[in-house]
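Why should sequence recovery work at all? Because a backbone constrains its sequence more than one might expect. Tight turns favour small or flexible residues, buried strands favour hydrophobic ones, and helices have their own preferences. The token representation captures these environments compactly. In the example below, the structure is given first.
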């Protein structure tokens, strides 16, 4: 008869993001404060560079807020009999929502810049320069808070990319204010605004692509599923591997399932332990559901249409 086994329990908060709640909350507070400052001064002075950076700061605040809510939701709503994988995917959805917001802001900035390029308005340089300096300090603080978490969590990485884009944007606005103050050149403001928009787009694309890969349950990047199949097939006693699936639940949580057909005289428990160790030690896949089955039971799998 067949043997099904799940290796590795899903913890109440097993995602990599859970360790960064405090840092995300602090980054949220910093971003919200300077967002208000940038938008108010931007609209008062008519600075497109400052408005675009303030609008992007809004998506930064909104994005960090989504990331924080997603982590708390995943933490409070662990696996149940109706939500067997909990709410971990909320983090991935937050990252995708972040990307959509970034695309929207970049589009808005480019549109506004095209509208202004024919007759750029006069923008007072000193207020823009002062606010940009304050924004630069705020973004640098948030950047340092989230940098380590961005390496482990797609959700935190989404918030981190928001802050990174804001950091570069603050540099741009600072440069725009300095040029305007020193030379009075009106084109500095819309040009810097466009540069901020183009800087944001490729990083947004990468973030959206990574989030969609997880939502479509593609194999994790860097994981060779064909190699895993070959190595499982080489486990002593295994004669066939089928229905092999490897996917990411959320950042830092890779999951696998497979059917292993074994020889008649093979010990199923030994095969199971060897396969689990292979996935855990070789690929850091701790949660694997493996069905070990004799050749006779495997015939049913051949009859399935998908």
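From this structural description, the recovered sequence reads:
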């Amino acid at each position: 008869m067949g043997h099904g086994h799940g290796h590795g329990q899903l913890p109440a908060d097993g995602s990599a993001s859970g360790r960064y709640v405090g840092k995300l909350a602090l980054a949220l507070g910093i971003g919200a404060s300077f967002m208000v400052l940038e938008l108010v001064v931007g609209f008062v002075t008519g600075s497109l560079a400052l408005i675009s950076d303030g609008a992007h700061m809004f998506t930064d605040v909104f994005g960090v807020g989504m990331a924080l809510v997603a982590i708390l939701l995943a933490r409070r709503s662990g696996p149940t009999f109706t939500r067997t994988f909990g709410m971990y995917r909320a983090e991935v959805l937050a990252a995708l929502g972040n990307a959509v917001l970034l695309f929207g802001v970049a589009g808005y900035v480019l549109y506004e810049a095209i509208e202004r390029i024919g007759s750029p308005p006069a923008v007072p340089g000193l207020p823009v320069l002062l606010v940009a300096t304050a924004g630069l300090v705020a973004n640098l603080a948030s950047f340092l808070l989230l940098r380590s978490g961005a390496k482990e969590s797609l959700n935190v990485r989404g918030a981190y990319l928001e802050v990174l884009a804001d950091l570069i944007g603050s540099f741009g606005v600072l440069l725009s204010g300095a040029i305007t103050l020193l030379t009075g050149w009106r084109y500095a403001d819309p040009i810097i605004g466009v540069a901020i928009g183009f800087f944001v787009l490729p990083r947004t694309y990468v973030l959206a692509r990574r989030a969609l890969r997880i939502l479509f349950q593609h194999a994790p990047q860097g994981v060779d599923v064909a190699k895993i199949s070959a190595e499982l097939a080489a486990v002593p006693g295994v004669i066939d591997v089928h229905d092999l699936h490897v996917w990411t639940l959320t950042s830092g949580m890779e999951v696998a399932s497979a059917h292993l057909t074994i020889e008649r005289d093979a010990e199923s428990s030994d095969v199971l332990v060897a396969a689990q160790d292979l996935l855990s030690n070789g690929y850091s896949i701790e949660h694997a559901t493996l069905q070990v089955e004799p050749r006779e039971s495997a015939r049913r799998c051949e009859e399935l249409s998908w």
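A few observations help interpret the result. Residues 219-303 form a domain with the Alpha-Beta Plaits fold (CATH 3.30.70.1350).
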